[in-house]
Amino acid sequence: MEVLTPTNFRKDFYNQIKEIAQNNTPKEITMAKKAGINDGVVVISKREWERMQEEQFLEETGTLDVVFDRMDSSSKDKDDFVDL
């Protein structure tokens, strides 16, 4: 993941966010504190944010566990979750 200072991110803001959106590549904007702790943010694409939200929903509702259980117990005799 590319790490940038706020100044460098701001200098080329439009191209930075365009690259994040088009290539789905996150970027870290780092901000040093006086205490020496590296604080900052990570900028991700909307597509990645939506994927993370959907995965979180599936985990919270237990749906993801059901899907994984069915995948583990599937066989080639069944139509569900067969390798293509």
From TrEMBL:
<comment type="similarity">
    <text>Belongs to the phD/YefM antitoxin family.</text>
</comment>
<dbReference type="InterPro" id="IPR036165">
    <property type="entry name" value="YefM-like_sf"/>
</dbReference>
<protein>
    <submittedName>
        <fullName>Prevent-host-death protein</fullName>
    </submittedName>
</protein>
